Batch of 2 targets.
Target 1
Amino acid sequence: MKLEVKDLSFSYGLRSARPQSFGDQKVLNGVSFSAGDGEIIFFLGPNGVGKSTLFKCMLGFLKPQGGEVLINGKNALSYRRQDLSKILAYIPQSYSPVFNHTVLDSVLMGVTSQLGVFEMPGKEHVEKALEVMKELGIEHLSDRGSMKISGGERQLMLLARAMVQDASLFVMDEMAANLDFGNSFRVMQRVLQLRDKGYTMLISTHNPDHAFRYASRVIAMKDGELLADGKPEDVLTEEVMESLYSIDVAVNTVNVGKSQYKVCTPVF
Amino acid sequence: MEKQKYRVRFLLLSVASILIFFGSFALGRYRISVSETVGILSDALIRLVSGNSLTLPESMRGWSIEAQTIVLNVRLPRIACAALVGAALSVAGASFQGMFRNPMVSPDLLGASTGAGFGASLAIFIGASYYTITFFAFLSGLAAVMLTYMISRLSRIKTTLALVLSGIVVGSLFQSGTSFIKLVADQNNQLPAITYWLMGSLSSVKNRDFLLAFGPILVGLVPIILLRWRINLLTVSESEARSMGIDTSKLRFAVIVCATLITSASVAISGMIGWIGLVIPHICRLLYGQDYRRLIPASAISGAAFLMLTDNLARTVATSEIPLGILTSLIGAPVFIALIVKGGSGNEA
């Protein structure tokens, strides 16, 4: 899998349903980066900086005014939805189902693009779903309602859905934002496990400590442009953090036994 | 074991529906036994299939001509139409609910019923024949939904909310049209006819009605049954469904067209029968889960059984007919209240 974002520009037109304050101001301005197999890239930046817009352009939901998104060398917009879904999966910040489908059925929804229009998931799809769920440690939830499981379990369910979709690039919009301390850790452990299998994940976050712990690369965005792109310790410096959020930030190293962890904290 | 449980429930439901179908023939002022009913029906079926060249042997034909006429020309169309309309409205309701991601949506949300009501009132007002009334109702129901759809396309908020709001506006527009017709209609025969039609009834349906509605309902029902797995994906967010490879606007359009066709054709022969499309899917969600692979067939069979039962009540409880719409409201309102109070639909698994 190879993703290339080239000189991407986007602005919400005046006629859109967006608040007028956005106007014709560019939400994305000349954004370029690429990603390959097995990378976990965290996107950091203040609210409204264009992370979600960038993700929507990658998923082919929005048409950029300039530049392009290439997936395996082909423009994201020229893919058929069905084909794109076999490369790219989307995991929303929070899953808010209206109906209480079982966890198994929710995971099974991921196989739909592999089915004919009138086809139903068959035995082999159920087996595949159960196998993936086992890998993520949620097979015991298969008959539970998707509304009745914890937020962390729900995110794992969505990961399983993305996996049965046969996608290799996961786009995750603030996937750990609504999880408690323990659940976000458990979900991120699974994300690392998937990285080791070669999956690529693009994750937007507001939590620099997550980026320190789990990212193979961090992209910092400001005013619709890339401010920095590189290893977590190179990008997440006090200067960059202060520039992003306009607050004083201290980056420190915590020693636990022989391990060292970097943490980020506001200073006041 | 989950599967086993649902399989048993499906079996029970199917057996119950078949019993209700045949049992319904035994009800009414003219006494006809179930065995006579089975005889008359199978005789008619044999004659129909063989092109009138074969009949049941004489020794098995122990029924009177009156019984045969009543079964074939009065009770059969009525029971068959009840089953058809009940199944149709339930499936339409379940489909609309999934599509609008809301368990409280009913099949007439986009104005199909009020549109059909207006068409029928207009036809009665101009003194049209019975079949013209049906036809008017059907066309007007379709027109109302098309209008709703077009207004929502013009709207700047291109969401389902725009569709729902347009539906409310169009519904009230057609409603006021109906009110105006009632105002100017002849108070001695037209007004009662319109009022009675709007309350929903199967008391005057003929075999031809069944055949008339069967075509459009089948045309709408088959795609929904075939697409029922995909309707599941409309219940998650738009962007998720699209990222999973679904062309949501095409799928949604197909479901709207089919469900509307079903609703308009049903309303055209039965008048306005409310609540079924809301209540039956809700109960089916409790008994058969949320998966549309089971929900659609379960809603169809339960809806058929429910309306056959309700119609039996309508024609036997009082000395004069009770309009079906009144009975379904009596049953539907409490279920809806329970839905609001509980704030969900069948979500206790």
Target 2
Amino acid sequence: MMIGILIAFLIGLFIGLKGWLKWLKKIKPVLWSTVLLLFFMGYEIGNDESLISQIDEIGLTALYIAVFSIVGSILFTSIYEKFFKKGKSE
Amino acid sequence: MILLLSAVIAGIISGLYFDINIPENLITVLLMFLVFSVGVDIGSEEKILSKLKVNMKNILFQSILTMLGSLIFGAMAIFFTNLNLQESIGASAGFGWYSLSGVMISNLYSPVLGAISFTANVIREVLAIILIPLVAKWSPLGAVSIGGATSMDTMLGVISKNTDKETTLIAFGQGVIVSLSVPLVITLIF
């Protein structure tokens, strides 16, 4: 699947470089495909009975993991951005 | 943002009440279409190839720092939960890729930790929808890092809407590198 996604991106990049499919943006393809993907993600959660039945115990632990890892990622990358990042174009 | 969160909630509710079989291929096709559209978008940017060249180093640092930040800070969950160090770091190592990390950890370690990792990464993605627009105002790369592995697919749209095309390019690169690292890092931890 990874390979498929990479190829799809490269084809899109190529078409964009050629200046084709300029009308595509008008139908907001990025927004609508994201909405559908998130809907299906939600569906998978709601449809997983063993997950839903233990949601209290699992949920709180998971929340700590999620919040801490987000904070760490933001902290490290924003420090890099503010002090070390080069190549900011005009 | 409201639209995206509603999509998640509508999905959960329909999952609770309906039993439909979603073909795996549909999701893959959707993902490919999304990434293709973003590709067209980035490609139509002027002088994009030279920008990619300039940003290779940024993409690499961005990816490594996103992962280190997640793992090191994720480890702090040992102070607030019943998890030990290995479990905390392991559950953080999905970097947002909930389906893969959940399944891998269930198989390699325990189903409960698999479920915790799955949920943690879903929460990461939902929080990303909310936080990316806010964090992007003062640190675009910080915003990109929230998406982790999903910066190349589901969160790419949110990132491209809230930052510039150069940052979106870095986001895609980060998504690729982090996604490739998830199976590797999880295997190393367990």
